[in-house]
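README: folding subset

This subset contains proteins for which both the sequence and a predicted structure token string are available. Records are stored as plain text. Below is the entry for PRA1 family protein (175 residues), shown exactly as it appears on disk.
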Amino acid sequence: MAQYLSLSQFANVSDRFNLDRIRSDFNSVHGTIAKLRPPQEFFDFRRISKPANFGEIQNRVGFNLGYFSANYIAIVSILSVYALITNFLLLFVTCFVIGGIYGINRLNGEELTTPFGRYNTSQLYTGLLIVAIPLGFLASPISTMMWLIGSSAVCVGSHAALMEKPIETVFEEEV
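--- output ---
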């Protein structure tokens, strides 16, 4: 019974990719892209200044994280792509696992017949796991994630702390 439960969990992965969900995800991405601030505003060096105290840093970070959120998501995405490109083994393992899961799901629960034998989906997932885990450890995903977290925090945090609020918002707060 447990074998059939695990098979159904993996076999239903392709069922989760329905058209309505893809449309809603696309609309969500489109909405985020629509919130991108122009580069002239994001890289406005006239608004960069040293904060006077920690309260001002908190105020700026709180405002800028909401105001430039789409730009910060783009920066983290670009850093993620850079991290994958520079760690080729991690990129290979990621593509290998995604391709393996896709290929096994394409079987629709049928057995794979090769000249070496017949394999059911449970055996294929186990084989994929046996190959992917050691390769995953060699690819050092934890150090890549730590680099990504650190570099994202430095880029986003320094921009959010050093960028002053637009002058319009300062006047809105006083009223």
